[in-house]
């Protein structure tokens, strides 16, 4: 039985043309096939991208596709020294400045690019990358970076175990001290960091820190951007205090705001679910870095690097700090 054809009038230069819906569907299918035939077809399969080179990549390629961890061959960090108060995540602009940014075209384009980049990042990317080397991003360097070529560790703002109400800056804690900085955001990442720093896995490191007579210290940065999870984490502060000496309470930071993609990419924190460790000198320069689970030789590199930095500090009267840092 022939389907009912509903006719409608299509205005033309010569009057009205009667067209049924069946003819419309046939014309649409024909035009769709024509466009598909004219569209260029992708040639071959795109080459895999190594982990850490593309922040928006969905997953790291497997070893069968050519995935191999590479040594961190160049300094990481920022070219400008950090300042206390930076990266707090708080908008300190006046109402007039906010209005100006709202109508400014350049600011609009910049914000639109940021939103596009955030939307294009797959939600499960970090979880997917965990299947490759347990999320390890890079191999640690055998030696520390030279002081004249090292880049700066950014400032983080958060509360500490010593004071839960007043914001504190990591830069003020890192100045004039050799610091082993641990950065993590989950229990999985914490366990990875402990393969580098705990007395069970690396007793030589703990002896170096305890025997440095205050020259070296261990600073922990616990990042949790989710408001609810951050509130739950605050309930365990009592247990965290019991696990540390009172002198170390002001060296444990809870950070929720100010962690941008720019900071993660410059410092090498390519996977938010993985733990990272850094050796930072008294001028807040990153002299060495490690990621994920520690290999045996990497722990030796860490211990050797800490000894080198301690020797540099004790060999000079005082670490040279750029004047911008003390502002």
UniProtKB/TrEMBL annotation:
Region of interest called Disordered, as start-end residue ranges on this chain: 34-96
PANTHER family in UniProt: MITOCHONDRIAL ATPASE COMPLEX SUBUNIT ATP10
Protein name, entry field: ATP10 protein-domain-containing protein
């Amino acid at each position: 039985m022939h389907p009912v054809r509903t006719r409608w009038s299509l205005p033309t230069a010569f009057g009205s043309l009667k067209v049924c819906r069946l003819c419309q569907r046939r014309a649409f299918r024909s035009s769709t096939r024509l466009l598909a035939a004219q569209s260029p077809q992708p040639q071959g399969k795109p080459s895999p991208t190594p982990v850490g080179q593309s922040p928006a990549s969905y997953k790291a390629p497997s070893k069968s596709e050519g995935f191999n961890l590479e040594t961190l061959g160049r300094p990481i960090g920022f070219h400008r020294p950090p300042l206390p108060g930076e990266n707090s995540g708080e908008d300190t602009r006046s109402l007039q400045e906010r209005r100006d940014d709202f109508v400014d075209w350049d600011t609009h384009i910049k914000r639109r690019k940021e939103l596009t980049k955030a939307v294009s990042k797959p939600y499960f990317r970090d979880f997917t990358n965990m299947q490759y080397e347990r999320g390890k991003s890079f191999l640690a360097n055998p030696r520390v970076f030279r002081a004249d070529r090292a880049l700066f560790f950014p400032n983080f703002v958060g509360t500490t175990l010593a004071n839960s109400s007043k914001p504190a800056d990591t830069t003020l804690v890192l100045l004039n001290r050799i610091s082993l900085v641990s950065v993590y955001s989950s229990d999985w990442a914490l366990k990875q960091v402990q393969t580098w720093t705990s007395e069970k896995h690396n007793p030589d490191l703990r002896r170096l820190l305890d025997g440095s007579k205050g020259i070296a210290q261990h600073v922990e940065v616990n990042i949790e951007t989710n408001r609810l999870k951050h509130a739950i984490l605050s309930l365990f502060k009592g247990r965290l205090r019991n696990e540390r000496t009172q002198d170390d309470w002001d060296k444990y930071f809870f950070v929720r705001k100010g962690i941008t993609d720019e900071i993660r990419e410059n410092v090498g924190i390519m996977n938010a679910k993985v733990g990272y460790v850094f050796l930072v000198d008294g001028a807040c320069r990153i002299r060495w870095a490690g990621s994920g689970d520690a290999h045996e030789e990497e722990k030796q590199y860490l211990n050797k690097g800490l000894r080198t930095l301690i020797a540099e500090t004790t060999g000079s009267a005082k670490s040279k700090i750029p004047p911008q840092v003390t502002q």
